[in-house]
Amino acid sequence: MTTVATSKDALAQAKTRMEKAVEDFRKDLASVRTGRANVSLLDQIRVDYHGTPMPINQLGALTVPDATMIVIAPWDPGAVPLIDKAIRTSDLGLNPATDGKVVRVPIPPLTEDRRKELVKHMHKVLENHRTAVRNIRRDIKEAVEKLEKDKKISEDDRKRSLDELEKLTHAETKKIEDLAAAKEKEVLEIK
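RE: above sequence
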């Protein structure tokens, strides 16, 4: 349970934590593949570089020369096979090609089945983040009720705080759902 000194502190903490959940969801959505090339697609992939898992964007320059290709130019040419292997073993279904200096990652068009799989995956991630927001609401609600029980705030303060908490929860949940709906539309759109 969260400990807070005032109902204002509780609401401020709720807002901060819920915004973090929304931002985390936004990052998760960025790694969901659409029909277009986007360097954020590779954000979740880690390359075992000298025994340390590192994000691809820290090993080289990532560019998108056209809508169907990502090019990775590693700063260390020795990292080319490592990057290639990391992308192949990821669950993105990508098949990179290398020439010893750069890694080219063609982004194939999505099949209908793959689009549906991606949408299902997005719905799971959406539900996890909705649950996270609800858990934050529950923690803050318990903290506010404890403040009232400990006679640090009045019953009116508790009611007002819980109403504001509910409004905040609905607003943040709506942000998550709107992001998911926009991404789903983008995934299902056939180019």
